[in-house]
Structures are given as C-alpha cells and as structure tokens.
Design a protein that fits this description.
Belongs to the STXBP/unc-18/SEC1 family. InterPro entries: Sec1-like, Sec1-like_dom2, Sec1-like_sf. By secondary structure, the chain is an alpha/beta fold. It contains 29 helices and 15 strands. The protein has four domains: 151 residues, 3-Layer(aba) Sandwich (Rossmann fold); 199 residues, Rossmann fold, CATH 3.40.50; 121 residues, no CATH class; 144 residues, no CATH class. Helix 6 packs antiparallel against helix 9, helix 13 packs across helix 18 and helix 14 runs parallel beside helix 18.
Length: 722
Amino acid sequence: MSTLEDFTQVPLRTWAQVLSKVKQAVVFMDDRCAEALHWSGGFAAVLEAGARNVRQFSSFEACGVHEPKAVFVVSSVLKGRTADVIRDVLALSHFQYCVVFTCVPHSAHLFANNVPAELEGTPVFEQFEEKLCEWMGNMNYTAEVRYAPVLFAPVSQQLILAPAFAHLFPLLPPDLRAINAKRPEKKKLGGLQDVDMSALPLELQVEVRSLVSALNHMFESTGTREESFAVGPMSRIIAGELGSLPQAKTRRKTAAKKASIIFVDRTLDLTGAVGHHGENLVEKILTALKPLPGHVTDVQVDVSELTSLQQTPHTHNPLAPGCLAQTQEPAARLLWEAMLTGKQKEAVMEVRRHLVEAASKEKLPIKMSMGRVTPEQLCSYIKLFRSSWESLQGHSGVLQLGLATAQTLRHPSLSRWDACLAFERLLLQALCDSDFPAVLRQLLPLMKPRGAEDSSPSGSRFFEDECGLEELILLLIYLYSLADEAHQDVNEGELDKLERELVGALTLVFTQEKELSPLVQKITGCSNAEELTTERAHSAVEDMFETLRSLSHTRDHLKQLRSVYTASDGVHQATYRPFLKQILEEVFRLDRSECPDMEHMSGGLTELLKTGFSMFMKVSRPHPSDNNLLFLFVLGGVTPSELRLIKETVNSHKPGSQVSQLGLISISMQTQHTKQKKAKDEALRNSLWVKGEESRVKYAIKQCLLHKMFNKGHLYYFIGAT
C-alpha cells in the first residue's frame, strides 16, 4: 500500500532528475518552477548539486566565456516567448552544452503545434535540440531537451501545491458565452455541463494536458492505479482526460497499488474560500503579509528584528525577507505543521513553546511568562538570538515563523478581519428571514467613501474599522455564493434596481481611489487613477456584477449536494455547511450509498458494460471508499481553515487514517498586495483563455480568493479510506 511519504517524496525525486544535470552549469529558471523548488530544498539544493549560479529566466541574462554549460528549467511549451528567451540567452553567451527541462509533455507539444496524432519518439524535442545548437553557434555542440514535471511543491506532510497551474480555474457562465461566440449557431453549447475538452481554447487544452500528465507521473512514480470521480464541469473534463490518457491506461494495467481521486470545482462553494470564519493562524498570515515577489504560495517576513539595524519610515530595508518555507530544520517543520492545521490559539502557543525551547537550548537569558501570548512577547524572545550568530543560524526556521506570527498579530488589517466575520454572521442569519435583495441591501452602508474628518495618510477609502475595497468584493462573493439559499421568491425587478444602486455606489468608491491597487487595476484595466474615468469604472463594476450573478447558480446542476446552508430552526442559528465536508461525509457513509453528484470517470468500456448490465442485474459500481487511499483534488485552491476542517472530518469518520493533501491552486494571480511587472502582466493576460472584460473580472475574483488562500493550485487530499 502507498504511504504518505511515497507521494510527498515524488517532487523531490523529480527535482533529482534536474539536479543530476546542473553540475558546473548556470541554471536559468522561470518563476513557476522556481516556486516549486522553493518548497523542495530551494536554490541551496541546486548549488549543492554543483551549479555555478542560478539566474532568472530572462532575455536580459547572459554568461561569460568561462561558463560553457547552461540548464534551462521552464514550465511552458517550447515555442513563442519561451523559445525567444532561450535564443536570446544563448546568442549573448558562449555555451557549448545546453540542457532544457520542460514541464509540458511531448504529447502536449505535438498538440500545440497542430500535430493531430501521436508520433514515435520525440520529434518536437529533437527539432528543438537542433535549434539550440544553431543558437549556440555550432551544430557540433551538445543539446538535450527533456520532460520533467517539476510542478508540485510539498508545502507540508498534508499539502502539496502546484504553482505552475495557479491560473487554472473552473469555468463560469461568462466563459461559456465566450466559447459559444466562436461556434456555429447549431453547435452552441447549452450549459457548462456540455463543455468538453475539444470545446476549450487551445491554450487551455495545453494546460489541462500538462496537468493530467503531471498527475499521471505522480501515480506512475508510486505505482498507483487510480479510480477517478468528478464533481463539477471543469473537474469532469480533467478527470476524463486522466482516464483516457494512453500512458495512464498502460500504467493502470500493471500498477499494484490502488487509490481513489475526487476532483471538485472550487466554484461550487466560494463561501468557504472567501469567508473569515476560520480560526487559523496561517490563513491570517497569508492575508496580512505581502507575498514574495514572483510567488503565489509564500509571503515576505521582515527579519530586521534579528539585526541591530535602525529602521525609520523613510529608510529602505536592505535585508532579504524571510519566508514560511522552512524545509531543512526539523523543529521548524514540526512548528509549521502545527500552524497550518491547528486553531490559532493553539498555533500561537506552539510558536511560543518552540521559541522558549530554542532559547533554553542555547542557554539564552529568557524570561518566562505565562498567560496570553502577545506579539511583543514573541519579539522579545526572538531578539535574544541576535547576540549569537550560531544560535541564529541554527534556529533560523523557527525564528522566521515566529516573526511571521508576531507581525501578523500586530497587523492593522486584523481588525478588518473581525469586522468582516461579524458581518458575514449577520448576513448568514438574515438569509433565514429575508429575501435576497433585502440581505444584499445591507452592503450598501459599507460602500461609502471616507469623510473629510478622516485624515489618515494611508490613502484608504474607508474608516479604519470598516471594510476596505477588497473586503467589500469578498463580501459580495460570499453573499452571491449563498444567493440560491434564500427561500423567498425574488422579485427580479427589485433585485435589478438594487444592483444598479450597488453598481453606482461601488463606481463612486473606485473613482475616488487616489492610488490604484493591483486588484483595481486588473478590474478596470487602468494603470493609474488618472486613466480611471467614471465611465470605465462603471463598465468594469457592471461586468463584475454579471459574473457575481453567475456564482449563485454554480450548484444548479447538482442533484443532492445543492446547498451549503442550514437555516435556523428557532433553536439553532443558521450555519454554513462546507461543501468539502459534505463530500467526505458522503464518501464515509456506512451504507456506502452512491452519490449522484460524484461521477465515476475511469471506467472506459468496462464501466459502460457494467452500466448496461445494471439494467438487468445488480452490478456494484466503484465507490471512492473502495480503496485505502483517497485523494481530494480541489480545482481552484483551498484555504488553511479548510485543510483543518478536512482533517477533522476524516479523523471523526476514520480515526487513525492517513491524511495528506496535494493542493494545486488554479487561480491566475497573486494576493492584492503583489505588484506585478509589466512583462509578467502581459504574459498573464496572454495565458487567460477567455479574452475580454469577463476574463478581467474573473481574474479579479480569483485574486480576491487568494487574499486568503494558498495561491497555487488544485488540492489533492490523500485520505486513508479503510
């Protein structure tokens, strides 16, 4: 039987293939692969393998005469901008030996080059090898092109993310309209459930093929045969592709181990993604601290308190930031696991305990104190390590996690977190007694610009104790995701009138913005406040509400799991019912009854025959709990609070079972604090498979989700099912 360690070691073994080629080489790596490496040993692992240097994948990089070997690690197809960058670097350098690793399989390269059938060998890679020699200036030089899916980031024992697929996200109705716009009238699709792989744009098909190939590589590396189940239109497409992949069919014939995998669309429950109900420390860290540049899974930790540098508001911090990825230090790994899946109070106490133990081990003069943990207390413990370089170096992982905790606990945005939580609870209760327009109207008072009496220099639009613009959009997503739960009949005319009021109020907020955040820039398409006219702001907000309306119908096609809300019965308050928890409860039902919303996707001809025979005799269909391992794959991301919820649900139904999460965020952006470079913005726009206003709005909604989520991929959740 496969174990948890088998799957968490797959990314490390895949990177080992790359590291075997980097000796005496200069390594060029794009941001997506660099982030996966960040959680798999970091650049230190590349240097320890013998590399001379690690550089950014950019046309502005070059090497000297005494650097004859280059290794490129890229996450994209070897054409277009990727090929141009490689050509530019080789032309400006003096390489004689070049190795290129791509995360896109050869079959996807054939598809991207409009080759309909699978060919023998790897002709696309071989042709690119010839180009490499040509660009190096001598056809007798050595060039290699290899496939290596270095896409997964083992964030913890329970979570693996895939930064390269951060932009992949379930389809929404605006996407369907964009797809239908390019189809003949008689071939237009009636709903998202009718969309198949062939209906998707070319770029998205390449992404899906790359993802499916990476999943197949993971199962092949562990000798596992999977049974796939899908909940949601986009999950159905991906599960179907995995089931029909030729390499996967061959693997399943000989694999000795078995597992089940359930693909779930994130859009079926956005309430859990944007809500502030989770008491989780890591979730608040991801919200409060700025992301690392170029990353979607980690944040910047200010380490100046570990030094004696004197900081003022006008001085630039010369120190490189710390981070959450502490993969080398055993104590830091244990602390990170506790922070990731524990409650905030327990996690903060665990941080203090680790700091006290580290200080005691180094015989530092620590003053013990009991009671409530404060950020000042944590910082006082951390500052003790400044006096000893050996102590600081030996416990740097724990110290960085301690600093991240202290900086989050004293961050001013946490007051907004509590305000949003209180308002979400009010909205939840109001859905019992009022129709949707009446509940939605309660957001109007929050959409007021700050009065003249507020002289805060921050440039914020709202009072400090009220919701900011990002929080307002989160609340709108939260409420529209629950809109179908309101039992009263909705007066469409009243709702339209109210939405026009909301659009007008939100437009005013946008236009009074003095400095546009990355989120507002993406929604409006304007890079600065001078460009943002009232007309452009109004048009952008109208498009946003069109997408919001579609969120209220994402569960309409489901037969059983249609609700994430339990109304008040007069004794108990109304409650939110997490969709992921409902899925797991269905999996672990004692009667093993079949859930009509979980579609089995791995059967092929055998399953079709079983379905036919079931009309005349009792035929047992596959069930997710048939196998000892169960993967829950959430297409669109997961919050740390949901990780804890999943773990608690599994333990309550299957005590002692193995729990592992492999998370792959499919949201194409970073948190709202991230300032994206122009070149990266352009590449990101080109990667969006639905063009136009809808894609910007969808991007903005996904960016808001990442305000609280791990911004990196789909989640697999690995569960002992027996």
